[in-house]
Hints:
heterotrimer; B: 207 residues; mainly alpha; two-stranded antiparallel sheet; 2 strands; 67% helix; C: 202 residues; 0% strand; membrane (chain A); transmembrane (chain A); cell membrane (chain A); oxidoreductase activity, acting on NAD(P)H, quinone or similar compound as acceptor (chain A); transmembrane helix (chain A)
Amino acid sequence: MSETLKSIGFALGMCLVCGVLLTAAATGLQPMQEKNRLSDRQKNVLYTVDLASRDKAYTPEQIRDIYEKNIDKIRVSAAGEIAEPAEDKAGDGQVLTIYLYTKNGEIQNYIIPIESQGLWGKIYGYMALENDGSTVAGFTVYEHSETPGLGGEIEKQWFQENFEGKKIVDRTGRFVAVQIAKGDVDKRVPEEKESHYVDGISGATLTGRYLSKGLEKTLSRYEPVSLCFRKQRLSCRLQEPTDPGEK
Amino acid sequence: MKLTRTKAFKTFAGPAWYENPINMQMLGICSALAVTVQLKTAFVMTLAMTFVVSLSNLIISLLRNVIPGNIRIIVELAVIASLVILADEFLRAYYFEISKLLSVFVGLIITNCIILGRAEGFALSNPPHLAFVDGLGNGVGYGSVLMSVALIRELFGSGSIFGYTVVPERLYAAGYEDMGLMLLAPAAFIIIGLMAWLQKYLVNSRK
Amino acid sequence: MVELLSLFLNSVFAGNILLAYFLGMCSFVAVSKNIETAVGLGFAVIFVLTVTTPVNWLIFHGLLSPGALAWAGLPDVDLSFLKLIIFISVIAAMVQAIEIIIDRFSASLYAGLGIFLPLIAVNCAILGGSLFMVERNLTFIESVVFGFGAGVGWMLAIVAMAAARIKLRYADLPSGLEGFAITMIVTGLMAMAFMLFSGITM
Lengths: 247, 207, 202
């Protein structure tokens, strides 16, 4: 019996020591990890508008400085008015988050947070659009669970740079979003559609298909905002960030 | 007294070469292959692995006289899991980019048979300093295989070493292409098979 | 429904947990020497993965994930750093429990599977299944399908390997290539074949 007691005592002691150690480490390192996560997202926002280059390394402080100088996070209602956070209590998606890149008092780009289904899990990223409301300025992915070498290529520069200059509307001005082709655009896609297709990844047809669907869904939700920019309505000329604290 | 005759050296060199945990004993291959697309990730994985295996050996060796036999395995797993969590949290706090690339594979060090194997087979019956050195040797042996596979995969798959492009532009211009297969899973299996063959051949021919 | 089927097919073929993610290699190399044991271990892995992945899902989303403890009045607590240690304990406990149950109810099954169950507790495919489930944000139903699919994929790989190794016994290999080395090379060829399935779409 004493043997059993000794084992139970030892196990309890083990649990206590490990638990205390791990909790201390996790709590101690958490602020650091949060900072990294935030910095990583800010960096990805900057990538889409070419304020940071993918080939260079930055400290979190540098990223924060560039970000705070140029980017404002705002929430807009579907009509393009600045929304108070309180209005989205129901969470029905009527209030949208966008990031604005402002230069010399002029909005250059608006950046949309992308969330898409992938083959294995959610894909998160950002897409920047020019202030004409129809041209893609940049695209990044900061989190995904696709297979390395196949679907995982969506995190690579070559794939993301393909999006630059693509249109989310067709020639008649109708909204079509951006699609990922099944192979190379110039071989697979008819001439008149080339402006809203990007090259696909070989061996990752499914990832491409999911991402196409996800982009279309997100972009169509943001279509009212894009329309604003396309029509150059005054209410879209959002200048002031609503809440400087929320960065 | 020559260095190569000391017990500590033998403890280190055994696992690092003659009984290499991956090639000679076929252990711990899982995590070994998954992170070998780039040298950078392979190197960090090696460090994490060496950290866990040497410290778990040390701790278990220190506790070897007080651990009740009937809950031995659970205690070993608890020690290993705690060390892995520490390594994982540390990486996510200080090396965020790399920890994103390593994803779940740091966590999978827990079920790496090398560590439990050394804890059971060595740490329980040897004094702490030898157990620690044995852990280091295993970490290095493990790391050397990881790094060699990663070197081949990165060099032929992306034309770079540690992220720096080494294949000259002229060669690409002349029609050389990176080998896409190297970045995919099958290449890792085949390379590790060829390396195990080479090492076994070398070890056998010495005898 | 179609999504679930496609998730299943993907976890069996193109995203095979062993051939694409390298998990469960140790037992794969050690146990693929003959067909019967490979089949036995394969079934055991399917069983354990199908049970532990959803159980770990419940534990993770009910207790560990950030904000999971809101029901207990602790909405700010984030225990997700404990997931590794909890998952491995759950897996070890489940394996133990399954062993006891099988022992109670079916002597023949226990005789067949009993020897493999302890092996499974330290098979990284099982822990990998649970970690991928968290990583990929699966829903509960998806975690069941994924656990089952990953198990089936693992079994398919090990049984195919066992069949190939029987043929290899009669091969005249150069010194040093026999055993582990040739097994790895054949696995590589098999992984290539499995990659071809990535074209399957629903």
